[in-house]
Design goal:
It is built from five helices and nine strands, in the order E-E-E-E-H-H-E-H-E-E-H-E-E-H. The chain has one domain: GHMP Kinase, N-terminal domain (Ribosomal Protein S5, domain 2, 2-Layer Sandwich). By secondary structure, the chain is α+β, with helices and mostly antiparallel strands. Helix 1 packs across helix 3 and helix 3 runs parallel beside helix 5. It holds the Pfam family RNase_PH.
Length: 235
């Protein structure tokens, strides 16, 4: 039995509320159980120096956690003093979202996705990617409505979900109680058509088998399908 009482293939309740930030070109508050992440998208008519005069756009991301997002207070991170974990997660978010966009169709402009964890209970990077795509979608919609781009640069949905081996069972969407005790922890980032973008998986206790990996993969695909439906409903 899972601590939450969920079935092994059951996601936490997911809700995505859009338009929560007045000034952002795209924004949403995604709730995956007790993990809540505020995601915003900012349009800028510039690109990093290495992309100047290439005609290609760019999507980047920043990630952070509020001091009381967890059960004890964390110190705020200055940008030049970010932990390795924070840097790794925001690079993952950026890579993941770029995998679902045609950068030539976006044109020479940048969209910055900010993911701020308000409350953490496991799976914050996955929620950030799933909610970050919604914020990105809304920002792109604004560009298209204004006539600044003529074709939709988003090629597919992008979402992410965690899976793991807990108490000998493969389970979907780990909360903190499960994540902290899991023998195997994995994050799957996929497109809406189940194209793989990235898999992060590690054995934290005993090793896991190919059979267990296939079970995790099947759970992830089912979870991604549900998350994409939540994205569609939100926008």
């Amino acid at each position: 039995m899972r601590p939450s009482g969920r079935q092994i293939s059951e996601l936490r309740p997911v809700s995505i509320e859009t338009g929560v930030m007045k000034h952002a070109e795209g924004s949403c508050l995604i709730r995956c159980g007790d993990t809540h992440v505020l995601c915003t998208a900012t349009l800028e008519e510039r690109v990093p120096p290495f992309l100047k005069n290439t005609g290609l756009g760019w999507v980047t991301a920043e990630y952070g956690m509020l001091p009381r997002a967890t059960n004890t207070r964390m110190r705020r991170e200055a940008k030049n003093g970010q932990s390795g974990r924070t840097q790794e997660i925001q690079r993952l978010i950026g890579r993941s979202l770029r995998a679902g966009i045609d950068r030539s169709a976006l044109g020479e402009r940048q969209i910055s996705i900010d993911c701020d964890v308000i409350q953490a209970d496991g799976g914050t990077r996955c929620a950030s990617i799933t909610g970050g795509w919604v914020a990105l979608r809304l920002a792109v919609n604004k560009l298209m409505k204004a006539g600044d781009i003529t074709s939709d640069p988003l090629t597919d949905h992008v979402a992410a979900v965690s899976c793991g081996v807990y108490a000998g069972q493969t389970i979907l969407d780990l909360d903190y109680a499960e994540d902290s005790q899991a023998g195997t922890d994995a994050n799957f980032v996929m497109t809406g058509s189940h194209g793989l973008i990235e898999i992060q998986g590690s054995a934290e206790g005993a090793t896991f088998s190919r059979t267990q990996f296939d079970e995790l993969m099947n759970l992830a695909e089912a979870g991604i399908t549900q998350l994409v439906e939540a994205q569609k409903a939100a926008i």
